Every structure is written in C-alpha cells, then in structure tokens.
Amino acid sequence: TLCKPRQHAGNPWHASTLEWLPNEDYGMRSIPQVTSRDPLWEQTGLAREVEQGRHWLPGTATGGRETLMTSAVHATPLHVLPLPTDSWLPLIAAAGTAAFFLLLTIGAAVPAAVCGVAAVAAVCGWLWQIDRPPPAPQARIGEHTWLPVGARGVASHAWWGTCIMLTVDLLIFACFLFAYAHASMSGATCPPPGARLPALGWSLSSGMLLLASSVMFEAARRCDMHRQPQRLLRLFIVLAAIGMCAAFVAEWRGQHIAGLDPTAQAWSAAVAAVLAYQGFHVAIMVIAAAYLLFRSWSGRLKMASRASLDNTALIWHCTALQGVVGPMTIQLLPQWMG
C-alpha cells in the first residue's frame, strides 16, 4: 500500500447518504442541495455535481475556512460563517480544564490552579482571534447567489450557543435550589438549630445592586460602537462590574454576620453552595469585563465584531437574575413554610 497512489474508495456499497460523497482533506468540493433523505439514490448525478463544484460554496469566498449557516427546517442558506484557523489554544484550553478537575481529585490545589489559569487564558486568546470583522460584507456562494458574511444578535450561531449553555447553567442552579428546598423541608424547623437567616436588608441591597449592574451592562451593549474611543461604553462596563462585585459582597457579608457554617448541617451547606455558585459566576463576569475592556482599548470591539459583547450581555443578565433568585429563595422559603 505504501507504493500505490492514494485512491478514493468511492461508494462501493451504493449507499444513499452524504458521507459517501467524494471528499479530500478539504472536505466536499461544494455543499450539495438535497431534496430527500436518500440523496445519492434519488439524485443520481449528485456526487459528480459536487465534485465539479456545481453546488453551494464551490470555492473559498473569504479566503479562509468557512461554511454556510442555514434555516433550521428547510436548510435555506442565510449567511456565510468564517471558521477559526489552526490553533493550539483550544487544545491547551481542553487539557488545562481536564487537568484542573483531575488534580483537584487528588488534592493538588496549586497545580490545579495553574492549569485552570492556563485554560482561562487559552479560551480568552482563542476568542480574541475568532471575534473579528468579516473580510467582506457579502460573498458569492453560487453563480447568481450572494449572502452576507457573518451575523449578529439572534441571527448569530454564537448567540444561540450561549443560550443553550445558559439553559444548562440555569438547570444546574435549579439543582442547587432544589437541594436547599429539600434540606429546608427535611428538618423539624427551618432554619435548623444553630443556623439563622441573614437580615433581609442585605439580600435586598444585593438585589438592587444586581439590577443596577444589569442596567449598566445593557447600556454598554447599546452604546454607539462607531464612536471612538468608546469611553462611555467602557465606563458602563466598569460600573456594571463594580455593581456585580458589590452585590456579591453584600450577600456574603449578610451570611457571614448571620454565622453561616457550611460544615454544621445540610441546610447551611446548601446555602453556602448557592452562594459559592453565584461567586463563581461573578468571577467569570469580572474576567469577561476585563476582556471586553481590553478589546475596546485595542480597537477590536466594533459593530462588525461584537459577538463577545452581545454574548457576555446574555450571561451577565442571567448571572444577575440568578443572584436575585437565590437569596430571595433562601429568605422566603422558611417564611412560606411557617
């Protein structure tokens, strides 16, 4: 086999599906338009047409890697999506994340922290590379068909990917609240002996700060991106980050004054878990705010490359909502139980 030239296997089984189309290292020569579940059976010349580049996107439209984004049901082409180029950063991020959790299982806190920092830095570096303005406003994908390059807001795949991630994240948060509710209902009294709720004023203050933080970040998202040097946008981001941190400090301070001891009983441990989960998100938001500030200072935060800002806004608002719902549930559930 080493002396023979490499040959394409073809479709020896006369299969009906697209994985049997001819392709090289670059993938399909063009993206086929199919009309059935068995395209290679019903469109007998499809393989030859794809190889000849007679379907969508027969050549690079932007000079780099790209694909088509289509509608969910009818697969109508909507826009051209430029794809990331080769990079070691995703591999470093994946290896750092895996090492972080594996090292924690054996109590190696310092090496785990180093790997965690490396993973976060790799993710930020990778995002820095891929969130760029499109090379052209439109690209030709067929003989007489032009599509926009990239998309923003709800038309963007990154926006929907963030929504899916947040759905999973909120489900995890709901599990923490369920654990708190279970611990509250399993005892004879709530809070149990030796534990008590913080003063309501701390939770109310935290909620007001989170609301202000969310408003500030939304104001940053709505700023005129064409205006340079974006001082107002950066001011809103800084104020939003300060409000987010102050809200967490207020809630933590209230629990500290109340004498929260996570090792005392399950109820206190559940409260501490909700608080810690919120603190984890606040730390992420601080990193995201710093990342956006650096993008703005470097001139990379523009109308045509604002996915980082739009997606961070979704996470920011969900973090604020989570920070309000968690403490209010902790405060109101014991009162509702009577």
Structure description:
This protein has 338 residues and is mainly α. The protein is elongated, with a radius of gyration of 26 Å. It starts with 38 loop residues before the first helix and ends with a helix. The strands form two sheets. A two-stranded antiparallel sheet has the order 1-2. Strands 3-4 form a two-stranded antiparallel ribbon. Strand 3 and strand 4 form a beta hairpin. It has nine helices and four strands; from the N terminus they run H-H-E-E-H-H-E-E-H-H-H-H-H. Helix content is 57%, strand content 5%. Helix 5 packs antiparallel against helix 8 (266-297). The mean pLDDT is 90. It has helices at residues 39-42, 46-51, 89-105, 109-130, 157-186, 200-221, 231-257, 266-297, 307-337; strands at residues 66-70, 77-82, 138-140, 146-148.
In a nutshell, what does this entry contain?
The protein is mainly alpha-helical.
Work out the radius of gyration: 26 Å
Biggest sheet: strands side by side, in what order? 1-2
The end-to-end distance, rounded to whole angstroms, is: 79 Å
Main β-sheet, in a few words? 2 strands, antiparallel
Spatial shape: elongated
DSSP helix count? 9
Number of strands: 4
Mean pLDDT: 90
> What is the N-to-C succession of helices and strands?
HHEEHHEEHHHHH
Beta-strand percent range: 5-15%
Helix content: 55-70%
* Broad structural category: mainly alpha
| Uncertain parts | none
What key attributes describe this structure?
mainly alpha, two-stranded antiparallel sheet, 5% strand, 338 residues, 57% helix
